[in-house]
Amino acid sequence: MKIADDIKKQPNKKNGERVGFRELITGSLILGGLIKFADFLNVKLAESLTGNMFSSYDAATQRFNGYFEKIGAVQRRLSGRIKRFFLNGFSGSVILNAFSNSLHVMLAMPMRSWGIGFLSAGLYTVAIWMLKYFVLFSDTHLIDFGIGAAAVLISLLLFLSKKTLSAELCSSRIAGFVLFRFLGLRRDDVETDDIDNSRGTGAAVLLAGTAVGILTYFVSPIYIFVGIAALLAMTLIAHSPESGLVIILLVLPFSPTMGLVALTSWCALCWVMKLISGKRTLKIEPVDVWIMVFGIIYLAGGIISAGRTASFKHSIVFFDFLLGYFMMANLIRTGVWVKRCAVAIVAGSALVSLYGVYEYLFGLTETIWQDTEMFENISGRVVSTFGNPNVLAEYLLLTIPIALSLVFAAKKGWKKLASFGVFGVGMICLALTWSRGAWLGLIIAGLIYLLMLNHRTLLLIFGGIFSLPFLPYLLPQSIISRFTSIGNLADTSTSYRVNIWKGALNIARDFFISGVGTGNQAFVTVYPKYSLAGIEGAPHSHNLYLQLLVELGIFGLLLFIGAMVSFSRANFSFYRSDVSAKTGHRYISIGGFSGVLAVLAQGMTDYVWYNYRIFLLFWLLVGLTIASRRAGIFENPIRAVKRIEDCSADRAVIDIITI
Fold first, then answer.
1. Which of 232, 248, 231 is nearest to 344 (CA)?
2. For residue 124, what are the domain limits?
3. Whether residue 390 sits in one domain with residue 326
């Protein structure tokens, strides 16, 4: 009777009714069996000791909250006193009030007044360039003349507008997209009363434009333009430190290290000012404590180091960039801000990848990072804006999964297409770096991404394993030979790394507990005494974990591993929760998690933190992944009321998350 009832419940497929694709797949004996096997593995893994450990982060966080309840009570009293002292001194600052009033006046100025300033600056810039070129015969650059001419043309457009700067910014689609949608400003921050102050400000703007034009005699207009842009960026970041993180992610591939240090430091300072004034809150979870202790140990390693002053400067830069994690995890608190950061990452990745493809198409590749005798069929490796193919590959490993996540997260077709285009050109550029370690990292990132997306994607992994024998017929021979050369000691690059690893292990044996100190200079100072013959000089150990062992000792390495394990536990707990399934933050979180683990995998073959920009992006992406998790929990309707109460500006600055 049961069998008969089951037959009656089945839809009638014989009367011309079409069978769905899903029914066809699940009805297949082989595929249906594989799906059941994937479900079985998922259940068993969740029930295993390892599965419980990696999905019990929420319970650990609750215990963590209990330990710090008394500390939170003391902190609330202390932060209240600090807040009152800070506000009493800062809110009445003459400089701050003067700056705020000047900004209000500039926004209320008519566009015609701005046109006067641009016209004056442009004419003087052009005149000074002609004076240098035709009369003084001094060195000049045509771009200086171009900037002056552009200022004159812009002034003509400004004269046509009858609006104020504030009204023009609010009505412009381009300015509205950049300021309000991308950088996250509110219209109330820009809107101001229409005041006819053209008479009072016209003369001042004329004098300011004249001064800028005359200044081009001593300073290139490019530096003046960059200085003005930096001043505007500082103003924006002071008002909204979240916007500063978006700017950092966008300009990171193109900025010098010290420029990023200044930008990150200013952003951190503005964030601290917001914290003290009670306008932002600070969250602390177990992963934050792990990373905080690791940062303190790293900073101490720069003070007590064989590299001395150079190591101290190195550790200061690293500690400053490590603050990017805490800013990202605490300032980016909503899904809108998470997507803004993701879009900034993808936009920068698109420009970097396109430039890399341009290098390949026009024969601008480099051959100094490859064994030209073994790989004579490789014309060269692209470096884009990073000057090194391996560093470029590390950057792409961190950004490509985010582009793929935006493909899934986008709701409009053109956004999906744009994100997929960035993903495609990034994959092409990554292939052109010919970085074998990055290719391995990409495979690992792909496996993790698919498994986190849905455990049934294990079927695709099985399919990939079965297709391995056919890859030589599908991929170019140059890629196959490059990939299969992994571990081949006949390759000079591989043998070079292996010999450096042996020398670094010799250092680790003598400095197993304390390490030699942080920074490249510390490694360079000690390494020659332990190196193998013929490999006396090396800038680093070409292995992230071995480098940390040499620099910080075993305890520093274990702290970093503990931080990454805690980071993984936080993400696995989020992926297995109901909150993750009900929000769109899952995709970006998976993309960030996959990118971080991919770079950690490449760290087995290279010191991926050798480049400061990669170190900064690494921790920013770790912070964005945690921020995606927190935003998903915050925006869950079941917990929204409680979270809003916890995030009140009048409450404690330090807010221990309860999940």
1. 248
2. 94-239
3. yes
Q: Is residue 122 domain-shared with residue 204, that is, in the same domain?
A: yes
Check if the beta carbon of residue 164 is closer than 8 Å to that of residue 104: no
Q: 219-222 — which CB contacts under 8 Å span 24+ positions?
A: 220/141, 220/144, 221/125, 221/143, 221/144, 221/147, 221/148, 222/143, 222/144, 222/147
Same domain (yes/no): 451, 524 = yes
Q: Looking at the domain assignment, is residue 286 inside a domain? A: yes
Is 448 inside a domain boundary?
A: yes
N- to C-terminal Cα distance for the chain? 49
Report d(CA 557, CA 542) in Å as an integer. 15
Q: Are residues 532 and 385 in the same domain?
A: yes
Residue 210, both tokens: 């004249």
Query: Which of 211, 239, 267 is the last residue before a domain boundary?
Result: 239
For the chain, the domain total comes to 2
DSSP string, 65-103: HHHTHHHHHHHHHHHHHHHHHHHHHHTT-HHHHHHHHHH
User: Residues 90-128: pLDDT tens digits?
Assistant: 544 555 566 666 777 788 888 888 999 999 999 999 999
Q: Is residue 38 assigned to a domain?
A: no
Per-residue model confidence as pLDDT tens digits over 199-251:
557 778 888 899 999 999 998 899 988 888 888 888 889 888 999 999 999 99
* Pair (203, 305) in one structural domain: no
Task: Specify whether the backbone of 519 is left (phi greater than 0), alpha (psi in -120 to 50) or beta.
Answer: left
How confident is the model at residue 451, as a pLDDT? 81
Produce one character per residue of 113-148: b if its CB has 16 or more CB atoms within 10 Å, e if not. bbbbbbbbbbbbbbebbeebbeeeeeebeeebbebb
Which pLDDT value is given to residue 64? 59
